[in-house]
Every structure is written in structure tokens, then in C-alpha cells.
């Protein structure tokens, strides 16, 4: 039994350990805070779901050592505490984790207190502790349905991908409930780009007035003849200047930050991915600088609105800077206080989504954060602070005028617009806006000084060739926007979805080199028309998401066979149904059953005759997806039968052009990275490669120099040739290791091994698990060590015969300080 402390303690359980110090500081010595480090239990596969029994899940504790150790520590802390309060995140996953804690540690679900807070500040934490609630089982069921739906989609459909394309051990081909529709968005964008190569047109600009202002012509020309005709007429034409009366316009403040908006803003302004944005936001949240960063809400709490009003009035000494509709930003939810059940049922879906606040600083008076923060954290905080204060301010008021200049064509005119800032409103926050308004004011006042209906001579008129309607690849920010618009996933999953399709290598973030076009431009100056020949590149793009051949093959197969499952509307409907379940208005397992049966019918329709995708290049070569990605499969027939080898393929292959026979073999083989995959050796892919110093073989993490083959062509070396060399070297090494073991094993209490059968498992080049007289042990030896080390394995938590090698390596490093 654990010995209890004399001090009465209340245990607060959160998800992240970074919150604990501040929470303990705010609540005092009678409170202790510990973390779950995320989920405690998992569903490993479809076998863990009892489909016939209303999809009842059977959870397993995570088996890795760190999780096991943390669960042990949690159990001790819970046993010592007088009271346990669950403070996991206020979302579906957080509610489920709270429920799992009760299940694992036998806490009563009906009476165990559950609190929520959206910022780590003293007032928020104390307020939350003062207003606990119970675990909301409707939200837990919504999370269970979400998790089971993901498993149903993944575990039922993914095997068909393996049958039709490849198992692809490198990245693991898979289908996903939200992952696949996200890939489909990128695929649709790819098709749009292919179908819209752009249309050649001429843009025309005229430079007029003493300030040589650039006026834009409102018509485009389609060819050189039209341009030359226009410029000829313009050379003698009397251009008449007119200007509109100043028109007052309002420029509304930006909206408060949701998860989607901060990911897009950070991607556009800081060039960081949604995943990195969320990581930095998490750090800012845990440090108490900002509110919870996973939210759909565009509202603020009343307390913050009051503090924002006070800050704005004090900072700018004018109440006009406060948004007159600022109270409409209120979410009317006090921190820690929950709506009653009647209110929840009567609230709309939008209100349910907006249980959180928008992302904002916890203290509006804090314009800069600690010097200890990273540069990215500081910049991100500045973006959040500026956007928040701007959203609470009044609209900017400007006067706009447009100057027009006539042309030889009655329906054609030149235009130049300028604005004069009358009241800056929210734009006063950014210095950039102030600088821009200064430049605009000069142009505005200058245009007003020019008399109307006078003739203004042109300085220069230029018509330049460009590409119109050229489609662009999506950035990560744009993909997040599209996910939100189509209702795919939720704020907490956007960054993970974007990351997952890249991790699978369906999509890569790349710079796109545009197409260079010879352009013939025309310039009119002093009645002389000059023809200018130049080259310009159109379509250059930076850091855009580009679908890869593997991604195209995957999505086209899934659309062909499971279009209904991965349709945007179906995915959105699933998300909406999960929201309905979270409100207690639908039985969770009915949704799982609907999805399961629909997928089951689609799988039956595909039939049993799925064949692996091979794109034939010629009689001996075809393009396939191998274990490590796309390769060229070479099948040659000799006296011994068919000899199959594999060659590397270039990365920028147009898969549709390939399917249509648009490439020769030489055009697609990557000769800069020449290798031939020969087969499997010691359960690893054996590859023959050619490097700077000649031929060598690789399998797993091992390499072997093959200089013994001299200048022999790679095509003339077969699997058996290399296997013979490797087997001989392996036998030599075994003899050497056994001799070393014989010399030192008795120091460890082991008998001298007579052969290699005492090796239970080869963990890495330096580590193996072996059996001895007194049980199993770890044999550790690096190439630099003269003698091996014999290490006890008894302290390893887990099945060292079956678990992943990484867990054993990490344990050896932590336990013995080696590696």
C-alpha cells in the first residue's frame, strides 16, 4: 500500500505537463498537478471493435515504456490524493481522455469533478475550480464514434490500396476519413492547373501627368495586330482627364482569430506550416500568454471586451477607436461556467462550436513576451496581439477618388485610384498602414489639383504580353481554408491532416518553376512604337503543395472505387453528425453502422480481382509502386527463367502522360541515382548501387562495398552473386563474435555458446538479445569496442521479443547510458 501524506491534497489532472507549474502556483500547496501526456488507451485495429454488439470498443493501454511509467505515476498520485479533478482540454479528445482516466483508475464518472479553462491565468484557473461539472458522456460518445469511424475507413479500405497499388513499406499507403478528401482537394487543384494553361493576352498601362502616374487600361488585347492598331490610334489621340468626386468608404476591422485563421495568417506572414503554428501556439498557451488555440469561435468573453475597451481608449485617447459593435463579439460565457442542459439543447450548432473564445492574448496590456521565448513565438504572439486589438477597433474611414483618362476607343479608358485616410480606426495599430496612408495622401491631393477635361499628354504607353487565368497550386494556408470551407475535419485536426498527406508522400511542398515564354511587347513613346522581344517566366511559385505520382495513383483508385465515401459532402455530413452526437441528439453507434455498411458494399463492388497497378513502358519495363516508392520494374527472360530487377525513376514524372505512352524508358530512368533492387536479404530489401567509389550493396541500414566486381556492368550482377559475398562475411562475423563471447561471457555468468542459436533478436548493428545459462541478456558492442558489454534486460517493461526495436534501443540508452 502507498503511504498517504498528512497534508490534504487535491489532484488536478491535465494533458500537458507544461501547464502544471503555473496551475500549482495559482492554486497553492494543497493542490498538485500531474499530466496524462495525451491519451492513455488506444484501439489498435478493427478487431478491438465488437461490430455485432453496437460497435463496443475494447481499449488497450499504450505499451511503450514512457506511457507505462506515467500511468504508474498517475496511479500513485491518484491514490495519495483526497480529491481528483479532471482538467483535460475542452474538446472531444479532452473529454474522452477524462473518461479514460476514470476507467483506468476506477474513478466514479458520476461524481468525479471535471473543469475547463481556456487560458492559464490565475483568475481563469480559480474560476474553473469553483465551477466544476461532470464528464459529458455525449461528447465522449462523439469522440468514440470519430475514432471508430477512422478505424473503419482505414482498416477496411487501406488493404484494397495495398492490393491494387502497393503496401509501400516506406510511407505506408493508407486511406483516411479526412486525409483522403484533403488529398482529393489537392488532386482537384492539380486537374484545374492541367486544364488551365493560361491564355495569352496584352495588358496595357499608360504613364500620364507630371508625376508619371501609372494608369491601367480597362481592356485587354488578344494579339499583336490589335495592340499595334490601338497604339497607332493612341499616338495622335488627345487624352482627356476626368476625376470622380471623393467617395467615403469604410474598411472594416479583421475578424477575431480562429484556428483556421491563425494557421493561414502564420503561413502567409511567417512562412511556417500549420503544424509548426500549432506547436508554437501550444507553447504560448501553456505559458499563459494566449487562450486555447483550437477553436471555431469568433467571440470574446465579456471580461476581455471590457479590458480591450479600456486599453484602446487609454492608448489612443479617443473613444471613437473602439468598435461601436464590440459587444456583438461577446460570447456571453463566463470562464468555467457551463450552460445548463436546456440551454445547450436550444442552442444552435454554431453556438455549440463557439463554446471556446477566439484566440487572443490573456493580457491585452502585454505587447511583448519574455526574452526567453523563441523568435517565432515572439513574432506569432505579435500577430495574435495585433489581430486581436484590431478586431476590437472601429472601421477605418477613407475618401477614394478615381482619375480617368479617355482613349481612342469609346468603351476603353485608363484609371488610377487613390485614397485619403480620414480616420484610421483599426489601421492605426500597424506602422505599415500609416506609411502607406502617407504615400496615398500625396497622390490623392495631387490628382485633385489637376483640372478636369484638360488634355493630358502621355509619357509612355506600354502593352505587355502576359498569361491570364493561370491557376496556382495551393499553399498549406489555402488547403486549411479549403478544409474549413468544405467542412472536412475540425480545428484540432487541420494541421494533422495537412501534415499527414505530406508524410505519406502523396503531396510534397515544393518550389514550382514556371514556363518561360518569348514575349513580344510594345511601347509607345513620342509617337514612336517600339517592338520589344524579351523572355518572361510565368507560374513561378514558392512552397506550394504539389501532388506526386503516388498521390495521383492513390486518389484515382479511391475515387473510382469509393467515391461516395470520400465525397466532400459525405465527409462534411459525418462531421456534422458527430456534432449532433455531442449534443445527445443521436445514438453514436448508429453512425458507425451506417458508415461500416456503406464501405462494406463498396468493397463488395470492387470484387476479388484487384490487380496491382503497372504502367507498361515497353515489353520488358513497367512503372510500379515498390516497397520504397515508384520504380521501374525490369523483367528479362533467360535460360533460368524470368529475372526481375528494379531501377530508379525520376521524380517529376507526369503520370497521365506516362499512362498515354508519352515517355521513353531513357526519359524516366533517374540515372543520377542509379540502383537496382535485387530482392530481399535478411528480411530487408537488397539494393545494388553505384557511387563515387564504385559498386556497393545496401540492405536495411547496412552497406557492403562490392569493389570485387570491378567494372562489371550492374545489369550483369544478380542476387545470388551478392548473397554469396554477404553470407560469407556474415559467417565470418558470427565466428568472430562467438570467440569474443566465449572470452567474456563467463564474467556475466553465462556458459560459452557453441553456435549462434543463442541470438534471440538482432536489435541493431550494436545490440542483440541473447540467451544464456541464467536467462536472456543484452549483448552490446560497437565497432570501436575491443570487448562487448553484457547488460541485464530484466528491467525492460514490455515484450522485448516482439516490441519495436526503437523501444529497446531507447531503453538501453536511458538505462545504461550507452549509444
From TrEMBL:
One Pfam family matching this protein: Toprim
Reactions performed catalytically: ATP-independent breakage of single-stranded DNA, followed by passage and rejoining
Entry annotated with the keyword RNA-binding: no
GO BP term, example: DNA topological change
EC numbers, comma separated: 5.6.2.1
Key words, A-Z: DNA-binding, Isomerase, Topoisomerase
SUPFAM superfamilies, alphabetized: Prokaryotic type I DNA topoisomerase
Transmembrane segments: none
GO MF: DNA binding; DNA topoisomerase type I (single strand cut, ATP-independent) activity
Ranges for region Disordered: 338-359
Domain Toprim: 9-120
Domain Topo IA-type catalytic: 136-603
Top EC class for this record: isomerase
PANTHER family linked: DNA TOPOISOMERASE (PTHR42785:SF1), DNA TOPOISOMERASE, TYPE IA, CORE (PTHR42785)
Membership in a protein family: Belongs to the type IA topoisomerase family.
Name this protein carries in UniProt: DNA topoisomerase
Species assigned in the record: viral metagenome
Taxonomy of the source species: unclassified sequences, metagenomes, organismal metagenomes
